[in-house]
Amino acid sequence: MRLTRSLLLIVALLLPAVQAALLAIDYGAEFTKLSLVKPGLPFDVLLDRDSKRKISSVVSWKRDERVFGQEAKMAAVRFPDTNFPYVKHLLASESVSELPIFPQPPVVTEDGVLIFPHPKVPSYISPRPESHGEVWTPTALLAHQLAYFRGLAEESAEESVTQVVVTVPAVWTQAQRRAYRDALELQGLTCLAMIGEGTAVGLNYAMTRTFPNYDVETGEGEREIHVVYDSGALATLATVLSFYQTSYAPSPKSKMLINTTHIDVLGVASLDIGGIHLDLAVRDLITDKFIAKTGRTEVKDNARAIAKLTKEAIRVKSILSANQEAQISIESVFDDIDFRSSITRAELEKTMAPRKKEFLTPLRNALKAAGVSFNDVNSVILFGGNTRVPFVQSAVKSILPSEDLIAKNVNSDEAAVLGAAFYGAGLMRQFKMKNIEILERSVYDISIKDGEVVFPAGSKLGERKSLLFAPKDEIALEFTQAGEPISVATVLDIKDALANFTAPSPVVNVTLRLDARGLFSVANAALVSNETASAANGGVAGALKGLFGKKEETTEAADAAETDAGADADESATTAENKTETAPAKKPRVALKVREKAVGFKPLTKEEKRVTRERLASIATFESAMKARAEARNMLEGYLYRLQNLLSDDAENRAIHEFAKPSERKVLSKLVEETFEWLHDHAEEADVKTLLAKRTALETVESPIVVRFKESQTRGPAIDNFQQAMFAGRHFLVEATKNRTAALEAVANAPVDKPAAPPKFTEEELAEVKKILKDYETWMDGLMETQVQLEDDKTSDPVIFTAELDDRGKRLQAHVLKLEAKKAPRAPRPPRPSSSTSAAAEEETGKAEEKPVEDEKKDEKVEHDEL
Description:
By secondary structure, the protein is an alpha+beta fold. It folds into five domains: about 1-55 and about 135-440, ATPase, nucleotide binding domain (Nucleotidyltransferase, domain 5), CATH 3.30.420.40; about 445-565 and about 585-605, Substrate Binding Domain Of DNAk, Chain A, domain 1 (Sandwich); about 630-700, Substrate Binding Domain Of Dnak, Chain:A, Domain 2 (Up-down Bundle); about 705-820, no CATH class; about 840-865, no CATH class. Helices cover about 45% and strands about 20% of the residues. The chain contains 24 helices and 28 strands. Strands 21-20-23-24-28-26-25-22-27 form a nine-stranded antiparallel β-sheet. A six-stranded mixed β-sheet has the order 18-17-12-13-14-19. Strands 3-2-1-10-11 form a five-stranded mixed β-sheet, with helices on both faces. α5 crosses α11 (about 415-425), α17 (about 605-645) crosses α20 (about 690-750) and α21 packs antiparallel against α22. The chain is extended, with a radius of gyration of 43 Å.
């Protein structure tokens, strides 16, 4: 997956770490969707422990037990004071929501921190809260849920999961993004990416589609513009996206073009209105009907009654999405009063009619921010559970030039998490993904307080920019986002750096970063020479403006001010041929220390993080112990019921009756009965060690019976296998001995010039096999005589055991196979003839070839004539 140029650096740094499983999280106000990205696993939504694809975004306590998902949602009726839903809406908030959606509303402390009370805090939570049960911040409650999400992922991946890609509303501020990051860090999770929710839906939309070619620089070609209309539980968000394709050849001779799909975010807008407002409208209608029928107005002040009414309102709204009327039925609403009635869709739409325009505001504002009109839009993609409500759909249709623009071509619940998973897979080397380049932008201006805008709204995420300042003892910079303070950065040790700085015109270069997650920070600061900066800013005038007017530079200017010797060497390589130049020395640069502090909304301090982390750890430890205890108890109970069934007279499995001695059955029956009684009286407070000890005591009595039964089933085949191994060993010994004898005879009778190969096996090797066979035969004969006498008595302990038979047979087999695999030796080379033998041979040859004297004389005469 190809990402934007500014994002590539981050990806390059992260890639070595993205090797294990990765979790994609789409955390919604009411429901959360998860997707696990791991090679070898299907690319799909992760199910929770109730096999649900959507997980309720809530954490609750049922007395001392922490619960999540649907169980936590259902617990709101019985335990409203310890039910904590809709945490997302309160991240980085310093005020209490006006919506009556919290069974136990949060409070603002004297320090201005939003805290949820937790009445009767469980004793195992440590450190204990100091006053009136105020324990959990919204960030901490989110961390609780993240622990559950991580547990689901690790159960599925069967390994530790520490890396996540999350979706967030593109309109989130720095404080909200930091709060989410803090929650992840509290659970030891590393956030690799924060991708906009609308962008994630667009990415899912683009995964299986192609788009027209378009040139951004020239404007040639076409692009498609789609609007993601995301209406969730508490907010409605509209994201305008452009989709187009570019193609390029990887090399001049290449005939294949590489296509890249581009997704650019053109505009985003949001408003806090969603499905909850419809739920509350239905709840108010039901409450009014109840009061009209019973006259009990105090129902509005009863937390349990409100929880029941809310639960019924959610059910009724779902029915009204598909029907014109729904029946209301609530048992024991208040003071054992049952209530039954009905409600129509028309009643709901009449109640919500004044707020219809609010659902359209994000759509209008997003198009305005993008600079496009409805005539430019190819489709409006509906996403979010609230878009299934007819009232919302009719509102959207009323503003569009044609109803045909409404698109329902993505999963309205899962598109965002699947898009985030696709994005995460692009960060993993194990996956080869479709080339998609994403360009997200900031929604708000980021400025220096009382100064210039450094990252204007619409800036690309992943950018860096630099500021130049005249050196002084200390430089303090205050940054704001949309006018709200976000951080203060102080550049330190400038005076000491100046003392060691020899280059002319020193300036302080501060590099700012708006990373791909939308998080702003000061990347670094350094003391550099202003000569390079002067050229980049257009001479002396530009340099002076940079010094005293806080002139901002682009990323490229910052890079020019920090160019090293390697870049200069590349430039010098382009000089004229046969002209040697010395590469210029590295530009002087002294790194400076930067101290940065978040301001505005107060994030968790180090101490608060420590306390929260310890509390979360104490809960995890307690739950781990409870899980182990529950497993030990279940194992003991299951074991007891199994033994009870086996001991009964009408048991189908007669193993204990046939293989247990009467005394053993009596002892075991009594122990089972006593353990059942103990479990009934002490199961709730018994610890894991005691539960395991009770099981061990039962196993000690049952174990000899189990051994007799198992041996009776396996001993016969084991004896057959052992005897076959002995037969194979004897056969090998006989054949190997014959071969050895034949090989020795061949060696003895072979001519000197053609020696025979020696035997394959040595005398010692065959003697070892013979010894093993004899020892095993003696062992077997001695025990078999006794075992045969015990065959009719199943309650007697065996003398021959399957394990020993298998072990001896395997050892014999392995020894024989090792010898058989041994390479046969080659025949030795014939010996070379000695010097005396060679002389004799030459003499014999000379005699055979000797000529008569007359012939020799004739030869001499001929030679003389020739001469």
